[in-house]
Predict the structure.
Amino acid sequence: MPLIIAEEVVGSISLGAIEPRPFSDEEVDLIGNVTDQVAGTLARARLIQTQQRLVTAIEQTAESVLITDTEGTILYVNPAYERITGYSRTEAIGRKPSLVKSGKQGATFYQDLWTTISSGQVWQGRFANKKKDGTLYTDEATITPVLDKNGSIINYVGIQRDVTRELQLEEQYRHAQKMEAVGHLTAGIAHDFNNLLTAINGFAELIRRQLKPDDSLQEFVDTILTSGRRAVDLVQQLLVFSHKQVTELQVLDLNTNVANIDKMLRRIIGENIELKTNLTPDLWWVRVDSVQMEQIIVNLAVNARDAMPDGGRLTIETANVALDDDYVAHHLDAQPGEHVLLAVSDTGCGMSDEVKSHIFDPFFTTKEMGKGTGLGLSTVFGIVKQSKGHIWVYSEEGIGTTFKIYLPRTEEHTPSSVRSEIETAMPLGTETILLVEDDAYVRELARRVLQRQGYTVLEAEDSQEALRLFLTHTAPIHLLLTDVVMPGISGKALAEQLTQTKPNLKVLFMSGYTDDAIMRHGVLDPGIAFLQKPFNPTALIRKVRTVLDGL
C-alpha cells in the first residue's frame, strides 16, 4: 500500500503471508487504515520539522522579524528585533510597531503604508526609527500581508534590516568622492596660478626695492604685494585641502607643538576663554609636517573661539590610542593600528547635523560675509589626509564640539632637525646658471633677480634650447635651474642628460605643480634640491646659493 503525503508517494507498507493465500477484505481494509494513519503521522512529523526549521531560521536571522494581527498589534518578535531596538519580547508583544517611532516621518507616510498593506499589497521602504535608549537608526523594511485560503488578511509580517552603518559609509564615500573631485580641480589649476603669482609678487618685490621709502608709489606696491601674498596663501590652502601640497615631513612629538604655540593660542582665543591642555606623557612619535600641525591647532582654536562669543573652555588633549577593526568598519577612511590622538574640544554653540555634513567643504562657512574664507576646516581636513591620518567630529547644538585627529604612529624615534634658512643679507654670486623655464614671465623674473646678485644667466624656454646652449657655451656652467614639467623633454630628463656629460653640475628644480605631479617625475626623492612656486626673489637667491655651496 503506498504512503502518500500531500499527493506525493513517500514510501509503502507491505502485507505478506507465510503461506500463499488471498487476503480477506478485512485484512485489506486494516492495512489501508494503518497506511493512512502512518501517512498522517509522517505528515505531522514533517510539518513539525518544517516548523522547527522555520522557527530556528527566524530566531537566528540577523534581520528583525515581527508579526502583527490585522489591527497592527505585535504578536511576535525575534531576538534580532530585541537586539536592534533594545526592547525585550515581553515589552514589545501586545504593543504597536510605533513603539520605535522616531517622529522623523509624518502622518502621511504611515497612512500610505497602511493603505498599501491593508489592500493586500507588499510594502517596501525605510523607517527612521528610535531605539529604547533614544538612538536613531534606519531600517530597510518589507511588510507582507499573510492571507488565508479565502484570500483574507490574517496577519502582517515585517522583516527589517538595520542599514544605519551602510548609509553612513555611503555618505562617507560620497563625501570622499566629492573631496577628491574638488582636489583634482584645485591641483589642475594650481600650476598656472603659481606661475602667475610668482611673476606678480616677484616683480612687485623688485619694484619695491628700487623705490625710495618716501616714494608715493610705495603704497601701491605694498598693496599689490599684500594682495599677492593673500593669493599665495589661498592657493596653498586649497592645495592643502586637496592634500597635494609639497610637505616637509619630520619625526616629532605633538606635545612639543602644543607647548610651542601655547602663548599664541592664549592671545588668539582671548581672556574670556579658558585654555586647558591634557597632554599624555611618553607620547608616540608621528611623521608629519610640523608647521602644518601647528596650523591645524590654530585653525581649530580660531573656530572654537568663534563658537564661544560669551566665553567658555577650549581643551587640547593628546593620547596614544589603537584603532581596532570595529572602529575602522564604521569609518571609511580610518586604518587599524596604533595612532596618536590630537583632540580639540570646546563648550561652544555646537553644530546641527546639516552644518556638520558640510564643515570640510571648501568655502563653506556659517560666518558673516567677509568674516571668513571657509577654508579653515577644509585645510585641516587636507592636512590630516595628506598625513595619512583620520579626522572625526562630534557636535551637539548648545553643548559643544570635539575634533579628534588620529595620526599613524611611526617607528622612528629620533626627531628630525630643521635647519633655519634665515639670513641677514641677500647672498651674492659669480657663477653661471642655465635657467630653463617655459613661462616667459617667471623666466624673466628669475633672470633679473639672479643677474642683480652677480650671476651670469643663460636663458632657455625649453629643454631643446637648453641642450643647445649647454653644448655651445664654452665657459663653465655651475648650476642648472629648471622647471620640472615642460613640453617635450622634462626638467628631470634634461638634468639626467646634462649630468652625464658634466657629473659635477649642480641642479635645482622648481615647479608650480602639486606633490603628486612632481613625485611622478622623481623630483622629491631624498637629496634632490627643489623650490616650490610661487617663490619670492629672496627665497630664490637663498636656495640657489645653498645648492651652489653644497649645503
